[in-house]
Amino acid sequence: MARHLFHRTAQAPRAGSEVWISPAAGVHGLGSFWAMVVSTTPALVAGAAYLRVVPIDDIDGDPVVRTYYVRLTGLLVREPR
């Protein structure tokens, strides 16, 4: 089984990384869930970014890419070693 490294970041995560979307990252009203990063776009505000992600639970089915504005300091990132 693969080991994963969890960390918080001040930089936008790479495509293929998994992120924990939650209110701590500034995303409210959706609960919390793991999502895979499709692409990132820097925001005009320092410490924030736009992430295009697909929820991990939807990857095997019919995935829908969603864009979220997140605070990077509240984002938990999981990258395979």
From TrEMBL:
At the top level, the lineage of the source is Bacteria
What is the recorded name of this protein?
Uncharacterized protein
